[in-house]
């Protein structure tokens, strides 16, 4: 079973893709089915869809680093 302690361990390894480091495949397999599907609004407007794994990686980053949304690294959130 995956835990946030595993994320802390994974964060110490060097990886070219931070989403794979912060959200390993096992965690993503557990989480992906729990996320609601993106639905476009029939009247238009609203927010644009984002890649689900990237959004979840941002959530894990904020929870494990203590960073606030305002200070997420450039290109995230």
Task: Tell me about this structure.
With 77 residues, the chain is mostly helical. It has one domain. The protein is built from 4 helices and no strands. The protein starts with a helix and ends in a 12-residue tail after the last helix. 8% of the residues are buried. About 8% of the residues have low confidence.
Features:
single chain, 77 residues, mainly alpha, 4 helices, 44% helix
What string, H for helix and E for strand, traces the elements in order?
A: HHHH
The percent range for helix content is 40-55%
What is the residue-mean pLDDT, rounded to a whole number? Answer: 75
Q: Which strand-content bin applies to the residues? A: under 5%
pLDDT under 50 segments (min length 5)? 10-15
Number of strands: 0
Give the overall shape: globular
Q: Topology, pairings included?
A:
Blueprint: H1 4-11, H2 18-22, H3 25-31, H4 52-65
In short:
This protein has one domain. It has four helices and no strands.
């Amino acid at each position: 079973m995956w835990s946030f302690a595993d994320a802390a361990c994974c964060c110490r390894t060097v990886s070219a893709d931070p989403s794979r480091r912060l959200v390993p495949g096992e965690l993503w397999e557990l989480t992906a089915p729990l996320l609601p599907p993106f639905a476009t609004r029939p009247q238009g407007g609203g927010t644009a869809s984002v890649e689900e794994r990237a959004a979840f990686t941002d959530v894990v980053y904020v929870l494990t680093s203590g960073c606030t949304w305002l200070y997420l690294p450039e290109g995230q959130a």
